[in-house]
């Protein structure tokens, strides 16, 4: 699907703004400083990679392989959304601990996306 980067880039960008506002206004009173920083990290990484997906989706002068776009899509989903789940579940003292190992897995997918992109540029 050739518009996948654009579709997910726009979706992740919009939800990053929504989650950022949610964290800044509604969660600020309910979260500790550490929890709020974790939530903000998820939002920042989501927005950064949403922009990357949009740029890759436009494929300016490049024919970007779809597996690179998939790596970023999966990475954002696993990394940022697991952080949101961990932080929000901890506010109710029912931390979803199974999400803990998912966060670094998402980070690995993000790194993989960058490495694949680098490989694409140098090969």
Please explain how this structure is put together:
This protein is an all-alpha fold and 123 residues long. It has one domain (4-122). The protein has helices at residues 4-26, 33-58, 66-90, 102-122. Helix 1 packs parallel to helix 3. The longest helix is centred in the middle third of the chain and has 26 residues, at 33-58. The mean pLDDT is 92.
Q: Determine the N-to-C terminus distance.
A: 24 Å
Number of DSSP strand runs: 0
Q: What sequence of helices (H) and strands (E) makes up the elements?
A: HHHH
Tally of individual domains:
1
Biggest sheet details: none
Strand content: under 5%
- Return the structural class: mainly alpha
Shape: elongated
Mean pLDDT across all amino acids: 92
The proportion of residues forming helix, as a percent range, comes to: over 70%
Rg measurement, Å: 15 Å
Residue runs with pLDDT of under 50 for 5 or more positions = none
Oligomeric state of the chains present here: single chain
Number of helices: 4
């Amino acid at each position: 699907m050739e518009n996948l980067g654009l579709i997910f880039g726009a979706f992740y960008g919009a939800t990053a703004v929504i989650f950022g506002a949610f964290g800044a206004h509604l969660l600020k009173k309910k979260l500790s400083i550490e929890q709020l920083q974790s939530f903000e990290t998820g939002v920042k990484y989501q927005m950064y990679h949403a922009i990357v997906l949009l740029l890759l989706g436009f494929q300016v002068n490049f024919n970007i392989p779809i597996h690179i776009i998939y790596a970023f899509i999966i990475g954002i989903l696993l990394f940022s959304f697991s952080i949101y789940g961990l932080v929000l579940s901890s506010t109710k003292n029912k931390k979803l601990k199974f999400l803990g190992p998912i966060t670094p897995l998402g980070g690995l997918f993000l790194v993989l996306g960058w490495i694949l992109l680098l490989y694409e540029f140098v090969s």
